[in-house]
Write a structure and sequence with these properties.
Layout: H1 8-16, H2 22-28, E1 34-39, H3 45-59, E2 64-69, H4 72-87, E3 95-99, E4 105-108, E5 113-118, E6 132-136, H5 143-153, E7 160-165, H6 172-182, E8 187-192, H7 202-212, H8 217-223, H9 237-243, E9 260-264, E10 272-277, E11 283-289, H10 294-308, E12 311-315, H11 320-329, E13 335-337, H12 341-356, H13 366-374, E14 377-379, E15 385-387, H14 396-409, H15 411-421
Parallel strand pairs: 1-7, 1-8, 2-5, 2-6, 6-7, 9-12, 12-13
Antiparallel strand pairs: 3-4, 4-5, 9-10, 10-11, 14-15
Helix pairs in contact: 3-4, 7-8, 10-11, 12-14
The protein binds adenosine-5'-diphosphate and magnesium ion.
InterPro entries: P-loop_NTPase (IPR027417)
Protein name: Phage FluMu gp28-like protein
Amino acid sequence: MRTWKNDPVLFAEKFFNWTAHEAQKTILRAKGQVITIAAGRRFGKSEAMAIDSLFYSFKHPQTIQFIIAPTYDQSTVIFETILKFLSKSPWQGLIEKIKYSPYPILKFLHNSEIHARSADKYHNLRGRKAHRVILDEAAFIKDEAVYEVIEPMLADYNGQMIKISTPYGKNHFWETYMKGLEGVPGYVSFQFPSSANPYISHEFLEAKKSEYGESSLRWRIEYLAEFVDEQDLVFPWHLIDSVVEDYQIPVSKEDNSVYYMGVDVAKYEDWTVIIVLNQDGKLVYFERFNRKPWSYVVNRIADVQKEYNAHGYIDATGVGDPIWEALTEKGVYLEPFKFTSQSKQQIIDTLRGKMENKEIVIPRIPELIDELRYFEYEMRPTGTMKLEARYGYHDDCVMALALAVYGATNKQEAKSFNLDIV
Ligand SMILES: Nc1ncnc2c1ncn2[C@@H]1O[C@H](COP(=O)(O)OP(=O)(O)O)[C@@H](O)[C@H]1O
Ligand SMILES: [Mg+2]
C-alpha cells in the first residue's frame, strides 16, 4: 500500500501541499539506477526534482545528494525551490543548517545532505562522493563533465543518477535516454511535452506553437522535447559548441591585426547587429540594438569601423542601402551586400565551413548562440529552399557573423580595395 513513507507523491501532498501532475507522478515513482527525463520547458522539472530530493533525503539518513546544473544560477533554482517548500512545512524543524558559501548545502538533523553545484567548473567536483546525483538541464552539461567527473562521483555507493532536461543535441543525455528506451537494465527513460503540465497556460503554449510554427525546431525541441537529428540542423549543436570559448569582449585592437566586420541592418522589428572578427577569426566585438534612429545606426557602425579600422560587408538590402550610402558619404567604406536566397545560402555555407575547420571562435553570447542553434531552412511551397529565420525568430546575429566571416574570406579583394582608397 502507498503511504507517505514510501511514496514521494503522497509525501508531497501531505507535507508540502503540492500535488504532482500525472507526468510528475510517473517520474517521482520511477525506479532505476539511471533515470533520464526529456521534458519540455515549464513542464515542472525543477519542482518535481525539489520534491524528489526532499523525499530521498528524509527516507535515507546519512546520504549525500548533489544537484548539478550547467551554471551556478541554475543550480540554485532547485535549491531555492527546496527551501521554499521546507519553509511552509513541518519538516523545516529537521534542518540542521543551510550554507550558501562557497556553494549551497542543506544539512538535516538526521545527517542527510543536499548540495547544489554547477558543472561549468566541473573539475572542482572531482573526488566528491554522492549517493545520488540529480542533473537539472542535464543536456546542457558537457559530456566531459558527466563522464570524467560526475559519473565517478557515484562509484563509491553505486549511486543513482537522475537527468532531467529539454533535449540538446545527441550527447550523454541522449545516450542514457536511448538506453532506457532500449531496455538496458537499470536505465529508465521518459519523454513529456510542456503541455503535460496542467498548471501552465495552454493559451501560452498555443501562442508559441503558432508563433514558431508547428514543425519548427524550436517548438519541437523546447516544447515537445523531441530529439532532433543533427542533419536537420544548419549548425549542428556540437559544431556550435566546438567554436565557443570563454572570454570577455570587446577585445581591444592590436596594432598588427587586420579586422573584418559584418553588419546586419534592422528592417522592422528586428535588430541591427555589428560583429568584428580579428584575422584569426576570433570574435572581438559584438553590438546589438533595435528601435534606434537612422543617424544613431550610421554613427555606431562608423565608430566601430574606425575603432578597428575594419574591412567587411554591410547588409545593403532595403533600408540597409541608404545606411550604406550614408556611411560611404562619411568616408566609411564597407562592401554592400544584397541578401537574396542564393547570396544568403552562400555566406551561410561559408560560415559553416569555417566553423567545421575551427577557423572561427566565438564567446558565449546568448543571443548569437541561440540564433545559431535554431537557424533553419524553410521549404517554399515551390519546393525551393528559403534560408531564413522564421517569423518569431531573429537571424540578425547569424547574418552579421556570416558577413564578417565572408569579409575575412574575401580579404584579398578587401585589402586591394583599401589600397585603392588610401
Ligand atoms: N505540481 C505542480 N503544481 C502546481 N504548479 C506546478 C507544479 N509543477 C510545476 N508547477 C508550476 O509550473 C511552472 C513550471 O515549473 P518548473 O518546475 O519551474 O518547470 P521547469 O523546470 O520544467 O521549467 C512553475 O510556475 C511551477 O510553479
Ligand atoms: Mg527548471
